[in-house]
Amino acid sequence: MGINSAVEILGKVMGLLCAGYFYEANIEFPYISGAVVSIVGLVICIILMRAGNRKAGWKDTDCREFSHVVTIDGNAQI
Questions:
Q1: Is the pTM of this model over 0.70?
Q2: 35 to each of 19, 38, 45, how far by Cα in Å?
Q3: What is the pLDDT of residues 5-18, one digit of tens each?
Q4: Mean pLDDT score of the chain, rounded to an integer?
């Protein structure tokens, strides 16, 4: 919990300092840099999730077998 708070505060301070520097260079740079950081974070999350699924023995298509709906009387609908 303490590490989480420390990283959060560090991110807020460094993020504001970088955004201020980028804002002085060009008014659009803080928004562009925020979008780039978000996209990089999304790509890293997807890569780590796929690696974790492979380590657990899951394939990328294993979720399809749970896509059917089972009704109250027990009949499966696809």
A1: no
A2: 12, 5, 15
A3: 999 999 899 989 98
A4: 80
Which residues partner with 76 through β-bridges?
A: 70
On the question of pLDDT at 64 being above 60, the answer is no
Burial of 29 (0-12, 13-18, 19+ CB in 10 A): middle
Is the Cβ–Cβ distance between 48 and 54 less than 8 Å? no
User: Who contacts 34 (Cβ-Cβ below 8 Å, separation ≥6)?
Assistant: 19
- Cβ 33 vs Cβ 22: under 8 Å: yes
- Burial (CB < 10 A; 0-12, 13-18, 19+), residue 41, is exposed
Are 30 and 19 within 8 A, CB to CB? yes
